[in-house]
Design goal:
Layout: H1 2-11, H2 16-25, H3 32-36, H4 39-50, H5 79-91, H6 94-100, E1 101-102, E2 123-124, H7 130-143, H8 146-164, E3 178-183, E4 192-198, E5 201-208, E6 211-213, E7 217-221, H9 238-250, H10 253-259, E8 260-262, E9 286-287, H11 293-307, H12 312-324, E10 330-335, E11 343-348, E12 353-358, E13 377-382, H13 391-400
Parallel strand pairs: 1-3, 8-10
Antiparallel strand pairs: 2-3, 3-4, 4-5, 5-6, 5-7, 7-13, 9-10, 10-11, 11-12, 12-13
Length: 403
Amino acid sequence: MLGFVRKGLLAGSGLALCWIALAQTQPQPTPANDRVARFPAMSRAAEEKGLAEPFKGITTNGEAIKGLFPLRSTGVSTAPVRLAAEKFLGTLNEEQRRRTQFAVDDLEWRKWMNQSFYVRQGTGFKDMTESQREAAFALMRASLSARGMKLSRDIMKLNHTLGELNHDNFVEYGEWLYWITVMGTPSASEPWGWQLDGHHLIVNYFVLGDQVVMTPSFFGSEPTYAAAGKYRGTRVMKEEQDAGLAFMTALTPEQRKLATLRTDKPGNDNLTEAFKDNVVLDYAGVPARTLNASQQRQLLSLIGLYVHNMRDDQARVRIDEVNARMDDTYFAWIGGTEPESVFYYRIHSPLILIEFDHQKPANLRHLYPDVPYREHVHAVVRTPNGNDYGKDLLRQHYAAHPH
């Protein structure tokens, strides 16, 4: 019966109604309220372990490369983002603002998690008025591209679908279980930023003058496609999935051999998700400098699918930076290369780290076997060598302008 429903889920056929029906008839898990009662202790434990070390950043050997992120003018105005943030803050009452706004160097930046149980700071969409919610969306629209905004909203919608598939459990899963915090005071010249944090969707957005750092960012979903329910037809991460596979299969046999770390994929493979700010990860896979011009363009296009989630003009600045270090970029692969294979890929350079992973069921284990599948995807984007959250820019700013 599970295979029958999976076919309906993946194909979006007339079996879709069975998808929801089966989910509702599965044995009831531990009551949601009982699980939620444990979430604060689980969150504190995650923070205690994940924040035990001061921030250093993703590195290849434990030491960040210096001089990669100079303070400079990009020529791209961040005024629309600043004005939208000011308007959002202006809609909050005193209590909401107290729990939403933090110092620009606050540890709150590092307190995010892609899992649903995490207890978050800030003001949640669920508790916002309509005008506050629209102001929050306006901040997102000012900061993200149309592509990034659609992806974010679709991930939020699919979190509602996940609730439908868990006996209408909207205590743990839902479209509005996402929180916004603001670090610092929106400014044309001083450092500040904002964060969106919730299940399968995290955006960290640091601003200094006209420079922007939008990492760590996390985009994912379970399921990746809604075959039925309120948001039937919604799908995410298919382009990132298909483009990754297309790039891998476009490599020569020798290049694929270099890129492949493993052909088996029994579990989850992402390495730099929540509370993994200081991972030491050496380069692996096929070096981009060994690719021909067409292959390098295809790799840059794959990178662009992630970078272009940020505002288009800022994304062009970022893509130019990444392209300038193409010879120092590596592509690695785990898993199969057949049309329906599950896999992991990683793009890694001194300036960017991207991980894409087909994961095992986490919140749909009552419907699917315990092996990676295409209906659960995690993707994370990092800025290695100490500039996640704009930390290296902030360090240089403080050195030049003591506060």
